[in-house]
Amino acid sequence: MEVVIAADADTVAEIAARIMIRAVTERPSAVLGLATGTTPLATYAHVVAAHRAGDLTLSAARAVLLDEYIGLPPDHPQTYRSTIRRVFTEQTDLPPDHVHGPNVWSTDLVAACASYESLLTELGGVDLQLLGIGTDGHIGFNEPGSSLMSRTRVKTLTATTRTDNARFFSNQDDVPHHVVTQGLGTILEARQILLLATGSRKSDAVARAIEGPLAARCPASVLQLHPHVTVLVDDHAADRLELADYYREIQATKEL
Ligand code: GLP
């Protein structure tokens, strides 16, 4: 795994945006796997700025979501589909019909999960998957205990995740209990993965993901199996990494 420790969250966002912009520049029809949450917002803002400056077109790119809440009306502002459109794609020239997510409004969720997997295959797979990390080590909404080979399916959120995500709702009871998420096996099929984490709240999950054992207890640890993953963290999120000095030494020899 490539571990990059940046001085602060702004630098994390700048580097992440550079990696996203490079992916689309090299392959204009790139399939971008997008994450929600607060962490990637600054990255999206940099990519939007590059588009506004005329340096980037996303007109042929596709955006695929990692996950979606079950139970919110389709026009609810906190659905992940509305969120990603609002915070990112609508501010670029990525066509609205190029944003894809699992159909959680289907009456047959098992079929909807299978058809999302088929769609990812039809699109040729994900070129660059952006990930955040939950304080309990989840990626997407693969909570602790998730099978490391799992595919897109329905999951139940932990109390920790519902509390963490309550800030997006008027009260905690409004946070859905269930979601559809790409599985860990699905995420691992992306050609390149970029995991972002900032702030000391994430330091424990980051250390367990990168330096802990490969274990369903920390779903993000499955990334240790991926051949092309970059973990991009700020100083605070790197706080508990035992090999931080070593990662910094390697990083000093590379151009990002
Ligand atoms: C949610 C999303 C994850 C995201 C996580 C962390 O649970 N499903 O994809 O990584 O939140 O979010 P934040 O970046 O706000 O800490």
Keyphrases for this structure?
globular; binds 2-amino-2-deoxy-6-O-phosphono-alpha-D-glucopyranose; alpha/beta; about 30% helix; 10 strands; about 260 residues; three-stranded antiparallel sheet
Explain how this protein is built.
- With 256 residues, the protein is of the alpha/beta class.
- It contains 8 helices and 10 strands.
- It has a 7-stranded parallel sheet, with helices on both faces.
- Strand 9, helix 7 and strand 10 form a beta-alpha-beta unit.
- Helix 1 packs across helix 2.
- The protein starts with a strand and ends with a helix.
- The mean pLDDT is 97.
What is the fold's blueprint, element by element?
Layout: E1 2-6, H1 9-26, E2 31-34, H2 41-52, E3 62-65, E4 67-69, H3 80-87, E5 99-100, H4 109-122, E6 128-131, E7 153-156, H5 159-165, E8 178-181, H6 184-187, E9 192-197, H7 203-211, E10 229-234, H8 244-252
Bound molecules: 2-amino-2-deoxy-6-O-phosphono-alpha-D-glucopyranose.
Structure described in brief:
32% of the residues lie in helices and 16% in strands.
